[in-house]
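re: that chain from earlier
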Amino acid sequence: MGKIKACLFDLDGVIVDTAKYHYIAWRELAKELGFDFTEKDNERLKGVSRMTSLEILLEIGGVTLTDEEKLRLADKKNENYRTFILKMKPDEILPGAKSFLKELKAKDIKIALGSASKNAMTILERLELTNLFEAIIDGTKVSEAKPNPEVFLKGAEALNVQPEECVVFEDAEAGVEAALAGNMRCVGIGSASVLGKAHMVVDGLHQMDYNKLISLEKE
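^ sequence. v structure.
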């Protein structure tokens, strides 16, 4: 596939772990609707859009609502979630993420964010990472969810590189599939049993460096 010129990063689970805040916000909503929402239930929401997440939540609770009520609850969940992320601090960046981003920048590798989150800009600002990204493609700029490759293809376009010159960092199976569908190399962050289709799987960005990245050029 040739030379690597750019890296595209998912946000949640790769650079920062906001999953706990999503979980608390969904759990509060379930409680209000009169049922329990467990961490096991929450696994079903990973990498899924807000409205689809709400549908799963309502299915778990056996609750039927009008479309209007669903929109109101989805907004309420987001407001709850935002109260948490607005208190985030730079020490919540996952181990190794910032040093790896800085190393890439020093080696002239272009960097973009490719996240479904509509709160991505807020989170990056709270973590003081905005200046390390040359392009930020988030949920406000895409219409198709992963495994559709739209978010990553737009990232490549914004960085002015070809898809085959990009490496994507993802923690969700749908994200790995999106990278492959976009003709990009992919590093899975997490478990090889879930992310086995990726070209390389590591526990976190603390296990990555420039040399390891460049070894993917042989793939």
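Residues 6-17+91-218 form a domain with the Rossmann fold fold (CATH 3.40.50.1000).
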